[in-house]
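#struct-help
A.M.: can someone run this one for me? Single chain, 292 residues.
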Amino acid sequence: MDRFLVGREYAGHLTDADLGLLASVAAAGTGPVADASSLRGDPAALLRLLEDPGAFRAVAGGQGDPGQAVPASPFLVFAVSVQRAAAELASAGHVPERTGPRQRVPLFDAPALRDFLAAPARRLFLAELLASFTRVASGRYRARVGGRMRTRRFSELDPVRLAGLLEAVPRAERPGVYRRLGDVTLFLTGVFPDYATAHALGPVNAARLLHAAQLPASQRDRLADAPAIELWEHLGARWYRAARDLAPVTTARVTVVGEVAEKLRQARRVLNHVADRYLFPPGNPWFAQPGS
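D.P.: on it. Structure tokens below:
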């Protein structure tokens, strides 16, 4: 996906207030002054502004009176946070990796994270992923169990229940379920890794997800004993590959899903960085700990 198309996708997500805020960043800089109404029709200029360090400062630091909220949508907050992460990792020698609650060790894999973030379409993917979980869908569906129709519940934040939809939806809808399974896996391991590894994947749930993934028995046995984060990464990549392979048309967006499938660990580590650095300051309004 080229920069023009990526900029156009950003324009589709941003509110008029977002565009006004970005236009103020351009007005404060040395480049040509942007008009909020014209930014939506100039995807290239919009993408340049999102990549400008001033955009993150304007959104994260606030403008005007100290008690006045910045008129930024959740999507803009996540978009500039991902862009900020790309800028920080461009010169990082190492990146902390979680080894347990409140425990970090340095990993010298920053070049791999920089490679992931080098593509504007993958940065857009992460911003869209984060924004999509500010509201979580849940509901009921009917499924045949033991020869009888029963009502089951699902939630986008519960991979086990969400995987149950694969047996109930028509074949044409399965790519969407696989895509969302990949999303929730990446979201939980990226934003709430301690919860994902310590609480969200007991032996029973792991067995159910491995069964839903239709893995050969030998792989299921091996992964059942693997560390939780390794199992999550394997499942997330598998879900995304299934979404790509079953999609009726290979669009630019589907291609990005396939790229994330092959680089899921890097995507997770980028989100770990974003979450630790930008998403959880005191009073953070965007996400609460799952189950809280």
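A.M.: thanks! Strands lie at 95-100, 103-107, 138-145, 148-155.
D.P.: also worth noting: The two ends are 38 Å apart (CA to CA).
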